[in-house]
Amino acid sequence: MKRIYIKERRSWIVLFLCLQILLLFIAYVDPAMSVQSMLYGNLLSVLIFIVFLLARYQKETLFFKSLDERDTELDVSSVASPNSPFEEIVEHHMTRQIEQLKLELTQNQQQVAEEKDELLAWIHEVKTPLTAMKLMIDRVQDEELKGRLTYEWLRIHLLLDQQLHQKRLPVMENDLYIEKTSLEQILFEEIKTLQSWCIQKGIGFDVELEVDEVLSDAKWLAFLIRQLLSNAVKYSEASDIVITSTKRENQTLVTIEDSGCGIDPKDLPRIFEKGFTSTLKHRDHAATGMGLYLVKKIAKQLLIKIDVHSTVGKGTTVTLLFPKSNAFIDLSNM
């Protein structure tokens, strides 16, 4: 620290010494001036100058000594210019701050990972009593009570399923297994899951599949269709939901059309945003705004293009355009 302090003030220390030498030279060449008196004056000046240096050293280095005890961010611009010798001190403390931030980031990432694992474990644990609950509900004799209980059970099941897939989404690409998948099997399994809810609301399904097999991941595709069907049932009254599949230019096209309340035109550009809920159903506190957000994210990984058309009061049509058979091969070679 002392060496840096002296080095920083080297120029005006040299100036002071040069002035003292100049005064001695003047006293030497000028007979009217006493060299001894000038030496005495120079000695006093040097002593005063040394005292001044020591006093300024204590004051000016106090801030830098305090940096060792500080954990907050250091403002480099208020300490020294980039070419200043104090840059070494600043660099040292900035390095300490960066290392500390890296350590905190690592700890936070570990904590988030642990919380995610705990949540996933909790969801799997909850599914066990939920399955047992469904078996007990099936034994209820009162059909009206059975229907209401099944509906509430289904709500819990869908929310847990949504949360489970939301937590798995960041590592979805590691969980993909692309294969020929039966649309009919997935659709009828999902419709069967929603059966009690549909019966309660008087909703039926009209399924016409010209194309059955698509190239996709069965598990993630099932979740995607589950979200779209549950949305269609949720926002529809007694009517039929029409599901069709066709072939267009070597690509499979699947449409899900309902006759529900529809989507406001100003909401359409935002329906896939995280947390967005319809302005038409803004008082629906059960809506999480996560369903279509997850659908969009999953569809992107599965190379499925989604198109939504809707008319308020008439219904909504969701179109899924599946990729060509060689799309996944091209993707794997990138």
Explain the layout of strands and helices.
Blueprint: H1 2-8, H2 10-29, H3 35-60, H4 62-66, H5 87-138, H6 143-168, E1 179-182, H7 183-193, H8 195-201, E2 204-209, E3 213-216, H9 218-234, E4 240-248, E5 251-257, H10 291-301, E6 305-311, E7 315-321, H11 327-332
Parallel strand pairs: 2-4
Antiparallel strand pairs: 1-3, 4-5, 5-7, 6-7
Helix pairs in contact: 2-3, 5-6, 7-9, 9-10
Task: Describe the model.
The protein is α+β, with helices and mostly antiparallel strands and about 325 residues long. The protein has helices at about 1-10, 10-30, 35-60, 60-65, 85-140, 145-170, 185-195, 195-200, 220-235, 290-300, 325-330; strands at about 180, 205-210, 215, 240-250, 250-255, 305-310, 315-320. The protein has a 5-stranded mixed sheet, covered by helices on one side. It is rod-shaped.
